[in-house]
Amino acid sequence: MSGLILKDFLSLRRYIKSAGIFLLIYNILFIATNQTSIAVIVTVYLLANLPISVFAYDESSHWDLYARSLPLSHKQIVLSRYLTAGISLAAGILIGTVIFCVDIALHSVSENAVAAAGTIIGTAFSSMFVQLLTIPLIYRFGVQRGRIFLLVGFAILFAAAVVSVPFLKLCLSYVPAAVVSGAAAILILLAGAVISYRVSCHIYERN
To answer: Which of 8, 15, 41, 14 is nearest to 27 (CA)?
Structure first.
């Protein structure tokens, strides 16, 4: 299965080089102008979305036809894609943390630095949430249609969030907001990871 993960990153080597140059230039500009939070958001989201590009490459090269002939179970093939997504996200978080440390070294502990620390956590959670939604949709509908359904899903989630704001404010008035939001986010992501993986396995086996 490690070979599948290595294949994913090797297929993206040109994209990763281009993304690295882009991030290097823009992060220098963002840090120099004390816009560290933007640098963190761009870095984490760009790297977390690498698996989508892997799907696009696989779809164009008909990789799945070859993958199904390998002595690997469908669950292992699907799991390797989730591990690729996790490694990409971890790389984004690591680089985002480095950016945060560089900002502190240059500008000391400022309000922007504190905001950047919170941005790393928030962006990491939201990026993982996007990954868990995107992978099953792409397995079911393909890269292009999967992205469209993802946008529709986000619109529905945004509408639901707006409607639920009064209820959330009422709940948060009784306990610390950070405790509630942090615990809820972790539980949702853990449950979402299990559900997303099982759904992807089911879809992949049926295709």
So the answer is: 41
Helix 111-141 / helix 177-206 crossing angle, nearest 10 deg: 20
pLDDT tens by residue, 37-71: 788 888 888 888 888 888 888 888 888 788 878 88
Maximum C-alpha span of the chain: 56
Helices (H), 108-176: 111-141, 143-172
* 142-165 residue pLDDT tens: 888 777 776 776 666 556 555 655
State the DSSP code for 109.
S
Model's pTM, two decimal places? 0.81
Q: Which of 54, 58, 28 is nearest to 43 (CA)?
A: 28
Domain ranges of the chain: 2-206
Return the CA Rg of the chain: 19
